[in-house]
Specification:
With about 350 residues, this protein is α/β, with parallel strands linked by helices. It contains 11 helices and 12 strands. Helix 2 packs parallel to helix 8.
Length: about 350
């Protein structure tokens, strides 16, 4: 089912295969987010918000609704949570931690988006995921019905599942951008890129450090699955009930399931920016083309630096402009990329 064989005695595929907990927040990860705020957030926030917010669905283990990191978004009605588990298990709690971490990474990257949290697992064991295929399918259909712009999935299987694939293809054809984690299988030839990251309709995301160097546990890249973004040593929210003393309620994690919500958040940020109005020279007239997996994939490819066979996404390559004409230059860059596709 999963992208790689768990370590001896372990049943938590998320921790072993897509997500590694522990260590200190890396300095390069801190700097990456500092640069994101000083470049991308600065440019995006300098334009008035017009129209609806970008909508991002997160398929994961739920969310700690009470966590301080989410209170501003909750107060603005920007988080909706729904459980697709058995009756009585709510969507606004998280007994695993992974979903809370993932949701916070989306908001750290795109602070004004609206999140749709779909709780599709509780503990993250292989047995649970084998039995919860219908939960994932229902969550994809629900996200599609909510007219989300993006679905991010930090989950993976060894083999394709026809029901999940059909739901994803339907979402794709309705203009929803799909992201999924590549896996942390390393160079293991038996279990390369996991499903659904390995299908054409989904943007596959690998992990890198804050300097753009690919993570050692990435599976081998392919021509269509070689995008990477920050996923090493990243701090984000963790359920308060899973702590005993630590006051900041954050945990550090690494892996492609950390990188995936960051990539999804960056896509949401770009769509939010490109959809805003302005003077004739400060708009992207064809911005709706960005609401498609193939267009976002190609836009990301234009924002990358090649590192050891992977294309490392650098937000500053699009947003590092200053001065009175910065919106004209950023919008012009996006428009030129779209025209070249």
């Amino acid at each position: 089912m999963v992208a790689d064989v768990p370590s001896a005695g372990s049943t938590d595929w998320q921790t072993d295969q897509l997500f590694r907990l522990g260590g200190l927040e890396s300095e390069s990860a801190k700097q990456w987010f500092n640069d994101l705020r000083s470049d991308a957030h600065r440019v995006v926030d300098s334009r008035p918000q017009i129209g609806r917010r970008t909508r991002v669905a997160v398929l994961d283990s739920g969310i700690d609704w009470s966590h301080p990191c989410f209170q501003d978004a909750i107060a603005e009605s920007r988080i909706v949570a729904k459980s697709f588990l058995q009756q009585g298990i709510p969507g606004d709690v998280d007994s695993n931690g992974h979903g809370t971490h993932t949701a916070h990474l989306v908001l750290k990257t795109t602070p004004h988006s609206k999140l749709f949290i779909a709780r599709v697992y509780e503990h993250g064991t292989e047995e649970e995921f084998d039995n919860n295929i219908s939960s994932v399918v229902q969550a994809i259909k629900w996200a599609t019905e909510q007219n989300v712009d993006i679905i991010t999935m930090s989950l993976g299987y060894r083999c394709e599942n026809a029901s999940i694939k059909a739901a994803l293809r339907d979402a794709f054809h309705k203009g929803i951008i799909l992201f999924a984690a590549a896996s942390n299988s390393g160079v293991n030839p038996r279990f390369p890129i996991s499903f659904p990251a390995n299908i054409r309709q989904v943007i596959c995301i690998h992990s890198s450090d804050g300097d753009g160097n690919p993570s050692l546990r990435n599976p081998p890249s392919t021509h269509d699955c070689n995008l990477a973004i920050l996923g090493e040593g990243v701090a984000a929210a963790w359920p308060q009930d899973l702590f005993t003393e630590r006051e900041d309620k954050l945990r550090v994690a690494s892996g492609s399931s950390v990188a995936t919500p960051i990539a999804a958040g960056l896509a949401a940020l770009i769509i939010e920016y490109a959809s805003q109005g302005g003077s004739a020279l400060e708009i992207v007239t064809k911005w709706k083309r960005l609401k498609h997996c193939d267009e976002i994939r190609k836009l990301f490819q234009s924002m990358t630096r090649e590192r050891a066979g992977y294309l490392s996404i650098a937000p500053s390559s699009l947003f590092d402009y200053h001065g009175e004409d910065m919106h004209q230059r950023v919008c012009g860059r996006i428009a030129d990329i779209l025209d070249s596709l």
